[in-house]
Amino acid sequence: MTIEYDEKGKYYTDIVTKLPVSCLIQTTTHLMRGFVHVRQGERFKNELEREEAFLAVTDVSIMGAGGGEILYTAPFMAVQRSQIVWVMPAGGEQQEEVKE
Asked: Which of 25, 27, 52, 69 could form a disulfide with 32 if both were Cys (CB 3.0 to 4.6 A apart)?
């Protein structure tokens, strides 16, 4: 890890600070609940509009399309953005700040 300082004392690192946002993700076949990690100071929408083919989601619970029973759980999942129908923040829950 490198840390650089400017003349005013502000520091810059190669670590990107992100905040986990609880959300619901509807794909073409399943409903998911998990955390999408958003860069500090940016909007949730900005994370969804990135050019990457996959959206990283952590602490994922995967349910059938009707949202019934939990079919799978995983600590991490990469969801192909082209398969996402809608995404909704789930009730303002946030985990503690995470540095990645």
From this structure: 25
Residue 5, class by beta-carbon neighbours within 10 Å (0-12 exposed, 13-18 middle, 19+ buried)?
Answer: exposed
The predicted model scores a pTM of 0.74
The pLDDT assigned to 32 comes to 93
Q: For residue range 23-58, what is the model confidence (pLDDT) as tens digits?
A: 999 998 899 999 999 988 889 899 999 999 999 999
At 93, list the tokens: 């829950």
Query: What are the domain boundaries of the chain?
Result: 16-99
First to last CA, the chain: 12
DSSP 8-state code for residue 65: T
Fold of 16-99: SH3 type barrels. (2.30.30)
